């Protein structure tokens, strides 16, 4: 009888027993071969071969499964922490954007007011000059005043 795991690894056992027990075999694939002999010690020509698969013990499987599950859980927690941190950064960035938008709107409001006040004066004076002095001004000056008033109309 012989039990081999690899082609060059051979464990030969000669016994008269009908049962052979191997203990503490490592997980893997094995080939068990038996040659028989009669009372005259005439051995059979070809051995009987049985291929075996030894699976790891259940506690090893449970241990590795538990470790894999713990690793997966740790990765989920780590990803959760990363998402929370990213969300906090996004909230901060959104607040900064909102503040910048408010500042821009305030700036535009003030600039619009600061520009509109002198523009309204220019428009008003242009109308007054055009109305009161149309007959005194030459054609080019009248056309310039009309261009000023035309430029102040809202775009359509």
What brief labels describe this structure?
156 residues, alpha+beta, 4-stranded antiparallel β-sheet, 2 helices, rod-shaped
General description of the model:
The chain has 156 residues and is of the alpha+beta class. The protein has a domain at 2-55. It is built from 2 helices and 4 strands; from the N terminus they run E-E-E-E-H-H. It has helices at 58-133, 139-151, and strands spanning 2-4, 11-12, 28-34, 48-54. It has a 4-stranded antiparallel sheet with strand order 2-1-3-4, with no helix packed on it. It is rod-shaped and about 150 Å long. The chain starts with a strand and ends in a 5-residue tail after the last helix. The relative contact order is 0.06.
Largest sheet: 4 strands, antiparallel
Name the average pLDDT. Answer: 85
Count of separate DSSP helical elements: 2
- Count of individual beta strands: 4
Structural class: alpha+beta
Radius of gyration: 49 Å
* Biggest sheet, spatial arrangement of strands: 2-1-3-4
- SSE pattern, N- to C-terminal: EEEEHH
Any low-confidence stretches, pLDDT <50, length ≥5? none
Percent of residues in helices:
55-70%
Q: Strand-residue fraction?
A: 5-15%
Envelope shape: rod-shaped
Distance between the termini: 104 Å
Summarize the topology.
Layout: E1 2-4, E2 11-12, E3 28-34, E4 48-54, H1 58-133, H2 139-151
Antiparallel strand pairs: 1-2, 1-3, 3-4
Helix pairs in contact: 1-2
